[in-house]
Specification:
By secondary structure, this protein is mostly helical. It has helices at residues 2-5, 7-15, 18-43, 47-66, 71-89, 97-121, 127-133, 141-170, 172-177, 182-204, 209-223, 227-251, 257-273, 276-279. Helix 8 runs antiparallel to helix 10 (182-204).
Length: 292
């Protein structure tokens, strides 16, 4: 009763639960990575790539479970391999919509086949649901630490390549003419997208991970045209969504944490669309001429 009447007491009680702590720690690191990656997905008009990799994450995890491996092996192996493949099939490390659509169509078909086999021959019928909708409450200490390490690696690489990648994203031809390794950066970025998709699938699930990647970045780009400020804002919004979503789910136990996270992360985006002045600002792309 005290926790219900006193929000601070409720938060303290929530933090005492190990599964909440694991989810918050892992989710925070993954959200920071998702915010950074999401900004470039939106800037480079590669959101469809993130959608495709969500299908790949679903398929990879289910195939791994079907053959008796850990789902995370399939998540990371499949998404990173597919990211490299998409980069190979496209010019300068970017695949076009036709390639992406064809890829995730047959990948999704394989996923449905793997789900059918897994359901028929394995007793763990919840595996497919966990892959689709996430299992952030099911992260133990080891998995949470692995998620934090993986997300930290993505963040470190993303920060290291942010400046040249930003240049290549805004004006690819000029960047290539000035010696920026545009194609290599395209590959690196896609690998980072694949790794982040695999990480985010553990939090919100393969079906919903695109929301965590795209919505914070879309909101940030509505609010500012300054690239680094938008990156920080996108990551902050993603972290706030994870914390807010878990708090909602804890306060209302029948509310799935993935739904809570996506509800919180989309609310600011809807709010910015409702403000006419801010809604016009995404048309202005980052201006980098004075920086190069």
């Amino acid at each position: 009763m005290t926790a219900a009447l006193d929000p601070l007491a409720g938060l303290a009680h929530m933090w005492q639960q190990p599964f909440i702590r694991h989810g918050l720690v892992a989710g925070t690191a993954i959200a920071v990575a998702a915010g950074l990656i999401g900004y470039f997905l939106v800037l480079r008009s590669q959101v469809f790539t993130g959608d495709a990799l969500s299908h790949v994450a679903f398929t990879g995890a289910l195939v791994a479970l079907t053959v008796g491996l850990d789902a995370r092996a399939g998540l990371f192996g499949a998404t990173i391999a597919a990211a490299v493949l998409l980069g190979t099939l496209g010019p300068r490390g970017r695949a076009d919509d036709a390639v992406i659509g064809s890829t995730f169509a047959w990948v999704l078909g394989i996923g449905v086949l793997a789900l059918s086999i897994s359901t028929a021959h394995h007793s763990n019928g919840t595996a497919g649901v966990n892959v689709l909708f996430g299992s952030i409450y099911g992260l133990d200490t080891a998995v949470a630490c692995t998620a934090v390490l993986g997300a930290t690696g993505v963040i470190a690489v993303m920060v290291a390549v942010a400046r040249p990648l930003l240049f290549a994203s805004v004006d690819e031809s000029v960047a290539a003419a000035r010696g920026v390794p545009v194609r290599l950066l395209g590959y690196v970025f896609l690998v980072l997208v694949g790794a982040t998709a695999a990480e985010a699938a553990q939090v919100v699930g393969a079906l919903l991970l695109l929301g965590l990647l795209a919505a914070p970045a879309g909101t940030a780009m509505h609010l500012t045209t300054r690239p680094y400020r938008a990156m920080a804002l996108a990551s902050g919004l993603a972290v706030g969504a994870v914390w807010g979503g878990l708090a909602l789910s804890y306060a209302f136990p029948k509310l799935p944490p993935s739904f809570g996270i996506l509800a919180v992360v989309t609310a600011p985006y809807v709010a910015t669309l409702a403000l006419p002045r801010l809604a016009r600002r995404p048309a202005a792309r980052p201006q980098l001429a004075h920086q190069h």
